[in-house]
Amino acid sequence: MPLLIWSAFAAFLIDQISKYLVIHVLELSRIRSIEVLPPVLNFRYGENRGINFGLFGDGAEASRWLLIGLAVIICAAVILWVRRTQMRPVALICAGLLVGGALGNVVDRLLYGYVLDFLNNSCCGIENPFVYNLADVFIFLGAIGLIFLAEDKTKAAKKRQ
Predict the structure, then answer these.
(1) Where are the alpha helices (DSSP H) in 48-88?
(2) Which of 4, 8, 107, 132 has the fewest CB atoms within 10 Å, i.e. is most exposed?
Protein backbone atom coordinates (compact mmCIF):
# COMPACT_ATOMS: atom_id res chain seq x y z
CA MET A 1 0.00 0.00 0.00
CA PRO A 2 2.79 2.51 0.72
CA LEU A 3 3.98 2.13 -2.87
CA LEU A 4 0.52 3.11 -4.15
CA ILE A 5 0.37 6.09 -1.78
CA TRP A 6 3.82 7.40 -2.72
CA SER A 7 3.27 6.97 -6.46
CA ALA A 8 -0.14 8.66 -6.19
CA PHE A 9 1.41 11.51 -4.23
CA ALA A 10 4.22 11.89 -6.78
CA ALA A 11 1.80 11.86 -9.74
CA PHE A 12 -0.46 14.39 -8.03
CA LEU A 13 2.42 16.73 -7.20
CA ILE A 14 4.03 16.52 -10.64
CA ASP A 15 0.67 17.26 -12.26
CA GLN A 16 -0.18 20.22 -10.03
CA ILE A 17 3.32 21.72 -10.21
CA SER A 18 3.43 21.40 -14.01
CA LYS A 19 0.04 23.10 -14.34
CA TYR A 20 1.06 25.90 -12.01
CA LEU A 21 4.36 26.51 -13.80
CA VAL A 22 3.00 26.39 -17.34
CA ILE A 23 -0.39 28.07 -16.81
CA HIS A 24 0.53 30.69 -14.20
CA VAL A 25 4.29 31.24 -14.23
CA LEU A 26 4.70 31.05 -18.03
CA GLU A 27 1.32 32.82 -18.30
CA LEU A 28 -0.08 30.38 -20.83
CA SER A 29 -3.59 31.40 -19.75
CA ARG A 30 -2.80 34.90 -21.05
CA ILE A 31 -0.68 34.18 -24.15
CA ARG A 32 -2.62 31.00 -25.10
CA SER A 33 0.20 29.24 -26.99
CA ILE A 34 3.91 28.48 -26.61
CA GLU A 35 5.88 26.57 -29.20
CA VAL A 36 8.20 24.21 -27.29
CA LEU A 37 9.45 21.68 -29.87
CA PRO A 38 7.20 22.43 -32.84
CA PRO A 39 5.24 20.62 -34.09
CA VAL A 40 5.85 17.66 -31.77
CA LEU A 41 5.36 19.46 -28.44
CA ASN A 42 3.47 22.68 -27.90
CA PHE A 43 1.76 24.30 -24.96
CA ARG A 44 -1.82 25.31 -25.77
CA TYR A 45 -4.16 26.62 -23.11
CA GLY A 46 -7.29 24.55 -22.58
CA GLU A 47 -10.19 24.40 -20.15
CA ASN A 48 -11.75 20.95 -20.14
CA ARG A 49 -15.18 20.87 -18.58
CA GLY A 50 -15.86 17.31 -19.70
CA ILE A 51 -13.96 14.05 -19.79
CA ASN A 52 -11.39 13.06 -22.42
CA PHE A 53 -11.42 15.32 -25.47
CA GLY A 54 -14.07 17.48 -23.79
CA LEU A 55 -16.80 14.84 -24.08
CA PHE A 56 -19.83 15.60 -21.89
CA GLY A 57 -18.46 19.09 -21.27
CA ASP A 58 -21.65 21.09 -21.55
CA GLY A 59 -20.42 23.39 -18.79
CA ALA A 60 -23.30 22.61 -16.45
CA GLU A 61 -22.49 22.76 -12.75
CA ALA A 62 -24.19 19.40 -12.24
CA SER A 63 -21.85 17.69 -14.72
CA ARG A 64 -18.84 19.19 -12.92
CA TRP A 65 -19.93 17.62 -9.62
CA LEU A 66 -20.89 14.38 -11.33
CA LEU A 67 -17.39 14.11 -12.81
CA ILE A 68 -15.80 14.92 -9.43
CA GLY A 69 -17.92 12.25 -7.75
CA LEU A 70 -17.17 9.70 -10.46
CA ALA A 71 -13.42 10.30 -10.17
CA VAL A 72 -13.50 9.94 -6.38
CA ILE A 73 -15.54 6.72 -6.64
CA ILE A 74 -13.10 5.28 -9.19
CA CYS A 75 -10.14 6.19 -6.94
CA ALA A 76 -11.82 4.54 -3.96
CA ALA A 77 -12.62 1.43 -6.01
CA VAL A 78 -9.02 1.12 -7.22
CA ILE A 79 -7.68 1.53 -3.67
CA LEU A 80 -10.16 -1.02 -2.33
CA TRP A 81 -9.26 -3.47 -5.11
CA VAL A 82 -5.54 -3.07 -4.41
CA ARG A 83 -6.06 -3.56 -0.65
CA ARG A 84 -7.92 -6.82 -1.26
CA THR A 85 -5.44 -8.18 -3.79
CA GLN A 86 -1.78 -9.02 -3.53
CA MET A 87 -0.22 -7.26 -6.51
CA ARG A 88 3.28 -6.93 -7.83
CA PRO A 89 5.01 -3.63 -7.03
CA VAL A 90 4.75 -2.38 -10.62
CA ALA A 91 0.95 -2.81 -10.49
CA LEU A 92 0.83 -0.83 -7.23
CA ILE A 93 2.75 1.98 -8.91
CA CYS A 94 0.29 1.91 -11.83
CA ALA A 95 -2.63 2.11 -9.41
CA GLY A 96 -0.95 5.07 -7.72
CA LEU A 97 -0.45 6.85 -11.04
CA LEU A 98 -4.14 6.42 -11.86
CA VAL A 99 -5.29 7.64 -8.43
CA GLY A 100 -2.85 10.57 -8.31
CA GLY A 101 -3.75 11.71 -11.81
CA ALA A 102 -7.48 11.46 -11.14
CA LEU A 103 -7.15 13.43 -7.90
CA GLY A 104 -5.07 16.07 -9.71
CA ASN A 105 -7.95 16.63 -12.13
CA VAL A 106 -10.44 16.63 -9.23
CA VAL A 107 -8.50 19.45 -7.56
CA ASP A 108 -8.64 21.43 -10.82
CA ARG A 109 -12.41 21.00 -11.01
CA LEU A 110 -12.75 22.12 -7.39
CA LEU A 111 -10.47 25.16 -7.80
CA TYR A 112 -11.35 26.35 -11.30
CA GLY A 113 -14.55 24.55 -12.28
CA TYR A 114 -12.70 22.77 -15.11
CA VAL A 115 -9.50 20.83 -15.74
CA LEU A 116 -6.50 22.84 -16.91
CA ASP A 117 -4.92 21.34 -20.03
CA PHE A 118 -1.79 22.54 -21.77
CA LEU A 119 -0.01 19.79 -23.72
CA ASN A 120 -0.48 19.47 -27.46
CA ASN A 121 1.25 17.16 -29.92
CA SER A 122 1.09 17.35 -33.69
CA CYS A 123 3.16 15.65 -36.33
CA CYS A 124 3.66 15.02 -39.96
CA GLY A 125 1.36 17.76 -41.24
CA ILE A 126 -1.51 16.67 -39.01
CA GLU A 127 -2.66 19.47 -36.69
CA ASN A 128 -3.99 17.98 -33.45
CA PRO A 129 -6.65 20.28 -31.94
CA PHE A 130 -6.74 18.48 -28.57
CA VAL A 131 -4.87 19.37 -25.39
CA TYR A 132 -4.26 17.33 -22.26
CA ASN A 133 -2.22 17.44 -19.06
CA LEU A 134 0.15 15.21 -17.12
CA ALA A 135 -2.69 13.90 -14.95
CA ASP A 136 -4.27 12.50 -18.11
CA VAL A 137 -0.96 10.81 -18.96
CA PHE A 138 -0.74 9.30 -15.48
CA ILE A 139 -4.37 8.09 -15.62
CA PHE A 140 -3.81 6.50 -19.02
CA LEU A 141 -0.50 4.85 -18.06
CA GLY A 142 -1.93 3.66 -14.76
CA ALA A 143 -5.02 2.15 -16.36
CA ILE A 144 -3.05 0.42 -19.14
CA GLY A 145 -0.52 -0.82 -16.58
CA LEU A 146 -3.27 -2.25 -14.39
CA ILE A 147 -4.87 -3.98 -17.37
CA PHE A 148 -1.64 -5.70 -18.37
CA LEU A 149 0.30 -5.96 -15.11
CA ALA A 150 -2.23 -6.45 -12.31
CA GLU A 151 -2.09 -10.07 -11.34
CA ASP A 152 -3.17 -11.37 -7.97
CA LYS A 153 -0.07 -13.08 -6.55
CA THR A 154 -2.14 -15.55 -4.51
CA LYS A 155 -4.25 -16.64 -7.51
CA ALA A 156 -1.18 -16.91 -9.72
CA ALA A 157 0.54 -19.12 -7.13
CA LYS A 158 -2.52 -21.39 -6.91
CA LYS A 159 -2.62 -21.74 -10.71
CA ARG A 160 1.02 -22.82 -10.78
CA GLN A 161 0.37 -25.60 -8.23
Answers:
(1) 61-84
(2) 107
